[in-house]
Design goal:
Number of domains: 1
CATH superfamily: NAD(P)-binding Rossmann-like Domain
Number of strands: 7
Subcellular location: Endoplasmic reticulum
CATH class: Alpha Beta
CATH architecture: 3-Layer(aba) Sandwich
Bound molecules: NADP nicotinamide-adenine-dinucleotide phosphate
Strand order of the largest sheet: 3-2-1-4-5-6-7
Distance between the termini: 72 Å
Low-confidence stretches: none
Keywords: Membrane, NADP, Oxidoreductase, Transmembrane, Transmembrane helix
Helix content: 40-55%
Pfam families: adh_short
Number of helices: 10
GO molecular function, one term: oxidoreductase activity
Family: Belongs to the short-chain dehydrogenases/reductases (SDR) family.
Shape: globular
Protein backbone atom coordinates (compact mmCIF):
# COMPACT_ATOMS: atom_id res chain seq x y z
CA UNK A 1 0.00 0.00 0.00
CA UNK A 2 2.85 2.37 0.80
CA UNK A 3 4.06 1.91 -2.78
CA UNK A 4 0.63 2.93 -4.12
CA UNK A 5 0.52 5.97 -1.79
CA UNK A 6 3.98 7.09 -2.94
CA UNK A 7 2.96 6.78 -6.59
CA UNK A 8 -0.32 8.68 -5.97
CA UNK A 9 1.49 11.55 -4.22
CA UNK A 10 4.15 11.71 -6.95
CA UNK A 11 1.46 11.82 -9.67
CA UNK A 12 -0.51 14.54 -7.93
CA UNK A 13 -3.98 14.56 -6.43
CA UNK A 14 -5.73 14.26 -9.78
CA UNK A 15 -4.33 10.79 -10.32
CA UNK A 16 -7.09 8.26 -10.07
CA UNK A 17 -6.82 4.61 -9.24
CA UNK A 18 -6.65 3.54 -12.87
CA UNK A 19 -3.74 5.83 -13.63
CA UNK A 20 -1.84 4.48 -10.65
CA UNK A 21 -2.70 0.93 -11.61
CA UNK A 22 -1.61 1.54 -15.22
CA UNK A 23 1.72 3.11 -14.22
CA UNK A 24 2.42 0.30 -11.73
CA UNK A 25 1.55 -2.43 -14.26
CA UNK A 26 3.62 -0.76 -17.01
CA UNK A 27 6.59 -0.42 -14.63
CA UNK A 28 6.26 -4.08 -13.67
CA UNK A 29 6.14 -5.19 -17.32
CA UNK A 30 9.11 -2.94 -18.20
CA UNK A 31 11.07 -4.31 -15.21
CA UNK A 32 10.32 -7.92 -16.22
CA UNK A 33 11.29 -7.22 -19.84
CA UNK A 34 14.57 -5.59 -18.73
CA UNK A 35 15.27 -8.58 -16.48
CA UNK A 36 14.54 -10.94 -19.39
CA UNK A 37 16.93 -9.05 -21.69
CA UNK A 38 19.62 -9.06 -18.98
CA UNK A 39 19.20 -12.82 -18.44
CA UNK A 40 19.30 -13.42 -22.20
CA UNK A 41 22.55 -11.47 -22.58
CA UNK A 42 24.21 -12.96 -19.51
CA UNK A 43 23.25 -16.54 -20.50
CA UNK A 44 23.96 -16.53 -24.22
CA UNK A 45 26.70 -13.89 -24.54
CA UNK A 46 28.52 -13.19 -21.26
CA UNK A 47 28.61 -16.75 -19.88
CA UNK A 48 30.60 -18.06 -22.85
CA UNK A 49 32.78 -14.97 -23.25
CA UNK A 50 33.72 -14.62 -19.60
CA UNK A 51 33.90 -18.33 -18.78
CA UNK A 52 31.24 -18.05 -16.08
CA UNK A 53 29.84 -21.56 -16.51
CA UNK A 54 30.37 -24.47 -14.14
CA UNK A 55 33.63 -26.42 -14.03
CA UNK A 56 32.13 -29.87 -14.58
CA UNK A 57 35.42 -31.69 -14.01
CA UNK A 58 35.43 -30.58 -10.37
CA UNK A 59 32.25 -32.61 -9.81
CA UNK A 60 33.91 -35.92 -10.72
CA UNK A 61 36.31 -37.50 -13.17
CA UNK A 62 33.63 -39.33 -15.20
CA UNK A 63 30.58 -38.25 -17.21
CA UNK A 64 27.81 -40.46 -18.61
CA UNK A 65 26.12 -39.58 -21.91
CA UNK A 66 23.17 -41.51 -23.36
CA UNK A 67 22.37 -41.57 -27.09
CA UNK A 68 25.94 -40.49 -27.75
CA UNK A 69 26.92 -41.83 -31.19
CA UNK A 70 25.18 -39.09 -33.15
CA UNK A 71 23.83 -35.57 -33.03
CA UNK A 72 23.53 -33.67 -29.76
CA UNK A 73 24.68 -36.59 -27.57
CA UNK A 74 27.88 -37.06 -29.59
CA UNK A 75 28.66 -33.36 -29.26
CA UNK A 76 28.18 -33.54 -25.46
CA UNK A 77 30.45 -36.60 -25.24
CA UNK A 78 33.17 -34.90 -27.31
CA UNK A 79 32.99 -31.55 -25.52
CA UNK A 80 33.05 -33.16 -22.06
CA UNK A 81 36.10 -35.19 -23.14
CA UNK A 82 37.66 -31.98 -24.46
CA UNK A 83 37.44 -30.69 -20.86
CA UNK A 84 39.47 -33.68 -19.69
CA UNK A 85 36.52 -35.70 -18.36
CA UNK A 86 36.39 -39.49 -18.91
CA UNK A 87 33.17 -40.57 -20.61
CA UNK A 88 30.83 -43.56 -20.31
CA UNK A 89 29.24 -43.83 -23.74
CA UNK A 90 25.78 -45.44 -23.72
CA UNK A 91 23.94 -45.98 -26.97
CA UNK A 92 22.41 -48.61 -29.24
CA UNK A 93 24.93 -49.62 -31.92
CA UNK A 94 28.07 -51.38 -30.61
CA UNK A 95 30.21 -50.67 -33.71
CA UNK A 96 29.43 -46.94 -33.59
CA UNK A 97 30.23 -46.89 -29.87
CA UNK A 98 33.60 -48.57 -30.42
CA UNK A 99 34.50 -46.11 -33.20
CA UNK A 100 33.53 -43.12 -31.06
CA UNK A 101 35.40 -44.45 -28.02
CA UNK A 102 38.61 -44.85 -30.08
CA UNK A 103 38.20 -41.38 -31.58
CA UNK A 104 37.63 -39.70 -28.20
CA UNK A 105 40.46 -41.55 -26.45
CA UNK A 106 43.01 -40.66 -29.10
CA UNK A 107 41.88 -37.08 -29.63
CA UNK A 108 41.29 -36.00 -26.01
CA UNK A 109 43.53 -38.46 -24.06
CA UNK A 110 40.75 -39.48 -21.68
CA UNK A 111 39.34 -42.89 -20.76
CA UNK A 112 36.03 -44.22 -22.06
CA UNK A 113 33.68 -47.12 -21.29
CA UNK A 114 31.03 -48.24 -23.75
CA UNK A 115 27.63 -49.77 -22.99
CA UNK A 116 25.53 -50.99 -25.92
CA UNK A 117 21.86 -51.11 -24.92
CA UNK A 118 18.54 -50.41 -26.56
CA UNK A 119 16.59 -47.89 -24.48
CA UNK A 120 13.26 -49.06 -25.92
CA UNK A 121 13.73 -52.00 -23.51
CA UNK A 122 12.99 -51.74 -19.81
CA UNK A 123 15.27 -54.62 -18.70
CA UNK A 124 18.64 -52.98 -19.42
CA UNK A 125 19.25 -51.11 -16.18
CA UNK A 126 21.14 -53.81 -14.25
CA UNK A 127 23.58 -54.02 -17.20
CA UNK A 128 24.08 -50.25 -17.12
CA UNK A 129 24.42 -50.22 -13.34
CA UNK A 130 27.18 -52.87 -13.45
CA UNK A 131 29.06 -50.84 -16.07
CA UNK A 132 29.06 -47.75 -13.87
CA UNK A 133 30.38 -49.52 -10.76
CA UNK A 134 33.42 -47.90 -9.16
CA UNK A 135 33.30 -44.72 -11.26
CA UNK A 136 33.18 -41.24 -9.76
CA UNK A 137 30.39 -39.80 -11.91
CA UNK A 138 30.21 -36.03 -11.74
CA UNK A 139 28.05 -35.36 -14.81
CA UNK A 140 25.13 -37.24 -16.32
CA UNK A 141 23.69 -36.17 -19.68
CA UNK A 142 20.30 -37.77 -20.29
CA UNK A 143 20.16 -37.13 -24.02
CA UNK A 144 18.70 -40.22 -25.69
CA UNK A 145 15.33 -39.51 -27.26
CA UNK A 146 13.02 -40.51 -30.09
CA UNK A 147 10.21 -38.84 -31.98
CA UNK A 148 7.83 -39.84 -34.81
CA UNK A 149 9.08 -39.92 -38.41
CA UNK A 150 6.72 -36.95 -39.03
CA UNK A 151 3.88 -35.21 -37.11
CA UNK A 152 0.83 -37.47 -37.01
CA UNK A 153 -2.54 -37.71 -35.27
CA UNK A 154 -2.25 -39.98 -32.23
CA UNK A 155 -5.03 -42.18 -33.54
CA UNK A 156 -3.31 -42.56 -36.93
CA UNK A 157 0.16 -43.54 -35.62
CA UNK A 158 1.52 -46.63 -37.32
CA UNK A 159 2.23 -49.44 -34.78
CA UNK A 160 0.70 -47.17 -32.15
CA UNK A 161 1.05 -49.46 -29.13
CA UNK A 162 4.70 -50.17 -29.90
CA UNK A 163 5.42 -46.47 -30.43
CA UNK A 164 3.78 -45.63 -27.08
CA UNK A 165 5.92 -48.15 -25.19
CA UNK A 166 9.12 -47.21 -27.02
CA UNK A 167 8.67 -43.50 -26.54
CA UNK A 168 7.92 -43.80 -22.83
CA UNK A 169 10.92 -46.10 -22.33
CA UNK A 170 13.37 -44.02 -24.37
CA UNK A 171 12.28 -40.48 -23.47
CA UNK A 172 11.05 -40.89 -19.89
CA UNK A 173 12.16 -44.15 -18.27
CA UNK A 174 15.82 -43.81 -19.34
CA UNK A 175 16.22 -40.36 -17.78
CA UNK A 176 14.46 -41.35 -14.57
CA UNK A 177 16.38 -44.62 -14.11
CA UNK A 178 19.81 -43.18 -14.94
CA UNK A 179 19.20 -40.28 -12.57
CA UNK A 180 18.14 -42.69 -9.83
CA UNK A 181 21.33 -44.67 -10.45
CA UNK A 182 23.87 -41.84 -10.15
CA UNK A 183 22.17 -39.37 -7.80
CA UNK A 184 22.76 -41.09 -4.41
CA UNK A 185 26.58 -41.09 -4.84
CA UNK A 186 26.48 -37.48 -6.08
CA UNK A 187 24.51 -36.45 -2.99
CA UNK A 188 26.97 -38.29 -0.75
CA UNK A 189 29.87 -36.40 -2.37
CA UNK A 190 27.78 -33.19 -2.45
CA UNK A 191 28.78 -32.61 -6.08
CA UNK A 192 27.15 -33.37 -9.41
CA UNK A 193 25.48 -32.14 -12.57
CA UNK A 194 22.48 -33.80 -14.21
CA UNK A 195 21.67 -32.40 -17.66
CA UNK A 196 18.38 -33.50 -19.22
CA UNK A 197 17.78 -32.85 -22.92
CA UNK A 198 14.07 -32.13 -23.38
CA UNK A 199 12.80 -29.90 -26.23
CA UNK A 200 11.00 -26.65 -27.02
CA UNK A 201 8.13 -29.10 -27.65
CA UNK A 202 7.79 -29.04 -23.84
CA UNK A 203 6.90 -25.35 -23.80
CA UNK A 204 3.56 -25.58 -25.64
CA UNK A 205 1.15 -28.47 -26.28
CA UNK A 206 2.03 -29.51 -29.84
CA UNK A 207 -0.88 -31.30 -31.48
CA UNK A 208 0.24 -34.09 -33.87
CA UNK A 209 3.39 -34.50 -31.79
CA UNK A 210 1.44 -35.05 -28.57
CA UNK A 211 3.23 -38.11 -27.24
CA UNK A 212 6.65 -36.54 -27.89
CA UNK A 213 5.61 -33.15 -26.52
CA UNK A 214 4.14 -34.76 -23.36
CA UNK A 215 7.24 -36.91 -22.79
CA UNK A 216 9.37 -33.76 -22.90
CA UNK A 217 7.05 -32.00 -20.43
CA UNK A 218 7.66 -34.95 -18.10
CA UNK A 219 11.42 -34.36 -18.45
CA UNK A 220 10.94 -30.66 -17.85
CA UNK A 221 8.84 -31.04 -14.69
CA UNK A 222 10.94 -33.91 -13.31
CA UNK A 223 14.09 -31.80 -13.75
CA UNK A 224 12.62 -28.66 -12.21
CA UNK A 225 11.20 -30.46 -9.18
CA UNK A 226 14.37 -32.51 -8.63
CA UNK A 227 16.41 -29.31 -8.81
CA UNK A 228 14.30 -27.90 -5.96
CA UNK A 229 14.84 -31.07 -3.92
CA UNK A 230 18.61 -31.40 -4.30
CA UNK A 231 19.97 -27.90 -4.89
CA UNK A 232 20.93 -27.63 -1.19
CA UNK A 233 22.94 -30.86 -1.55
CA UNK A 234 25.43 -29.44 -4.06
CA UNK A 235 23.65 -30.90 -7.10
CA UNK A 236 22.61 -28.97 -10.21
CA UNK A 237 19.81 -30.34 -12.38
CA UNK A 238 19.56 -28.55 -15.70
CA UNK A 239 16.82 -29.09 -18.27
CA UNK A 240 17.69 -28.08 -21.83
CA UNK A 241 14.97 -27.21 -24.34
CA UNK A 242 16.43 -27.25 -27.87
CA UNK A 243 14.60 -26.04 -30.94
CA UNK A 244 15.70 -27.53 -34.27
CA UNK A 245 19.30 -28.77 -34.42
CA UNK A 246 20.70 -30.27 -37.63
CA UNK A 247 20.69 -34.00 -36.76
CA UNK A 248 19.28 -37.31 -37.96
CA UNK A 249 16.31 -36.96 -35.65
CA UNK A 250 15.27 -33.59 -37.06
CA UNK A 251 16.15 -34.77 -40.61
CA UNK A 252 17.64 -31.32 -41.23
CA UNK A 253 21.10 -31.13 -42.83
CA UNK A 254 21.50 -27.44 -43.60
CA UNK A 255 22.48 -25.24 -40.67
CA UNK A 256 21.39 -21.63 -40.21
CA UNK A 257 21.14 -19.11 -37.39
CA UNK A 258 17.89 -20.83 -36.32
CA UNK A 259 19.20 -24.39 -36.83
CA UNK A 260 22.72 -24.82 -35.45
CA UNK A 261 24.95 -27.85 -35.88
CA UNK A 262 25.09 -30.14 -32.81
CA UNK A 263 28.63 -28.89 -32.08
CA UNK A 264 27.59 -25.23 -32.11
CA UNK A 265 24.44 -25.96 -30.12
CA UNK A 266 26.21 -27.94 -27.38
CA UNK A 267 29.05 -25.39 -27.11
CA UNK A 268 26.40 -22.80 -26.30
CA UNK A 269 24.31 -25.08 -24.04
CA UNK A 270 27.31 -26.24 -21.98
CA UNK A 271 28.22 -22.59 -21.35
CA UNK A 272 24.87 -22.17 -19.56
CA UNK A 273 25.48 -24.94 -16.96
CA UNK A 274 25.60 -23.41 -13.50
CA UNK A 275 23.96 -20.23 -14.80
CA UNK A 276 20.48 -21.34 -15.91
CA UNK A 277 18.75 -24.49 -14.67
CA UNK A 278 16.12 -24.32 -17.40
CA UNK A 279 17.53 -23.16 -20.71
CA UNK A 280 16.88 -23.18 -24.44
CA UNK A 281 20.62 -23.61 -24.78
CA UNK A 282 21.02 -21.37 -27.83
CA UNK A 283 20.09 -17.74 -28.35
CA UNK A 284 17.75 -18.13 -31.35
CA UNK A 285 15.98 -21.07 -29.69
CA UNK A 286 15.31 -18.84 -26.68
CA UNK A 287 13.58 -16.34 -28.98
CA UNK A 288 11.64 -19.17 -30.67
CA UNK A 289 10.65 -20.67 -27.29
CA UNK A 290 9.41 -17.30 -26.05
CA UNK A 291 7.30 -16.83 -29.20
CA UNK A 292 5.88 -20.36 -28.98
CA UNK A 293 4.89 -20.08 -25.35
CA UNK A 294 3.53 -16.55 -25.37
CA UNK A 295 2.67 -15.02 -28.73
CA UNK A 296 2.31 -17.57 -31.53
CA UNK A 297 -1.33 -18.68 -31.65
CA UNK A 298 -1.82 -22.45 -31.31
CA UNK A 299 -3.67 -22.29 -34.66
CA UNK A 300 -0.42 -21.28 -36.42
CA UNK A 301 1.53 -24.05 -34.65
CA UNK A 302 -1.13 -26.57 -35.68
CA UNK A 303 -0.98 -25.46 -39.30
CA UNK A 304 2.80 -25.87 -39.31
CA UNK A 305 2.34 -29.42 -37.96
CA UNK A 306 -0.33 -30.19 -40.56
CA UNK A 307 2.02 -29.00 -43.32
CA UNK A 308 4.85 -31.20 -41.98
CA UNK A 309 2.43 -34.14 -41.74
CA UNK A 310 1.39 -33.69 -45.36
CA UNK A 311 5.01 -33.64 -46.51
CA UNK A 312 5.85 -36.67 -44.33
CA UNK A 313 2.93 -38.68 -45.69
CA UNK A 314 3.88 -37.79 -49.26
CA UNK A 315 7.48 -38.98 -48.69
CA UNK A 316 6.31 -42.19 -47.02
CA UNK A 317 3.91 -42.98 -49.86
CA UNK A 318 6.62 -42.28 -52.46
CA UNK A 319 8.92 -44.73 -50.65
CA UNK A 320 6.20 -47.40 -50.61
CA UNK A 321 5.54 -47.06 -54.36
N1 LIG B 1 17.58 -32.54 -33.24
C1 LIG B 1 16.63 -31.72 -32.85
O1 LIG B 1 16.17 -30.86 -33.63
C2 LIG B 1 16.10 -31.80 -31.44
C3 LIG B 1 15.22 -30.82 -31.02
C4 LIG B 1 14.71 -30.87 -29.73
C5 LIG B 1 15.11 -31.88 -28.89
N2 LIG B 1 15.96 -32.84 -29.31
C6 LIG B 1 16.31 -33.92 -28.38
O2 LIG B 1 17.72 -34.07 -28.35
C7 LIG B 1 18.04 -35.43 -28.07
C8 LIG B 1 19.06 -35.93 -29.09
O3 LIG B 1 18.49 -35.82 -30.38
P1 LIG B 1 19.37 -35.85 -31.71
O4 LIG B 1 18.64 -35.03 -32.68
O5 LIG B 1 20.78 -35.56 -31.41
O6 LIG B 1 19.21 -37.39 -32.14
P2 LIG B 1 20.02 -38.24 -33.21
O7 LIG B 1 20.96 -37.43 -34.00
O8 LIG B 1 18.99 -39.04 -33.93
O9 LIG B 1 20.91 -39.22 -32.29
C9 LIG B 1 20.27 -40.11 -31.45
C10 LIG B 1 21.29 -40.91 -30.66
O10 LIG B 1 20.56 -41.71 -29.74
C11 LIG B 1 20.81 -43.08 -30.01
N3 LIG B 1 19.56 -43.83 -29.86
C12 LIG B 1 18.40 -43.61 -30.49
N4 LIG B 1 17.49 -44.51 -30.11
C13 LIG B 1 18.10 -45.29 -29.19
C14 LIG B 1 17.70 -46.41 -28.45
N5 LIG B 1 16.47 -46.91 -28.55
N6 LIG B 1 18.57 -46.99 -27.60
C15 LIG B 1 19.83 -46.52 -27.50
N7 LIG B 1 20.28 -45.47 -28.18
C16 LIG B 1 19.43 -44.88 -29.04
C17 LIG B 1 21.29 -43.15 -31.44
O11 LIG B 1 22.05 -44.32 -31.58
P3 LIG B 1 22.22 -45.05 -33.01
O12 LIG B 1 23.27 -44.26 -33.69
O13 LIG B 1 22.64 -46.43 -32.70
O14 LIG B 1 20.89 -44.95 -33.71
C18 LIG B 1 22.10 -41.86 -31.53
O15 LIG B 1 23.36 -42.03 -30.93
C19 LIG B 1 16.73 -36.19 -28.07
O16 LIG B 1 16.30 -36.37 -26.75
C20 LIG B 1 15.78 -35.27 -28.80
O17 LIG B 1 14.44 -35.45 -28.42
C21 LIG B 1 16.47 -32.83 -30.59
Amino acid sequence: MAVFQNIISSLGKSADFFTVFGVTAASFVAFKAALGVFRFISTYVLAGLLGLSADLKKAGSWAVVTGCTDGIGKAYAEQLAERGINVVLISRTASKLDDLAKEIESKYKVQTRVVAVDFTRADIYSTISRSLEGLEIGTLVNNVGMSFPFPEYFIELENREQVIRDMINVNMLSMTMLTSMVLPAMVERRRGYIINIASTAATAPLALLGLYSASKVYMDYFSQTLQQEVSNKGITVQVVLPGFVATKLSKIKKTSFMIPSPTTYVRSALATVGIENRTFGFWSHAVQGFLMASILPSMVQRNVMLGARKAGLRKRNQKKE
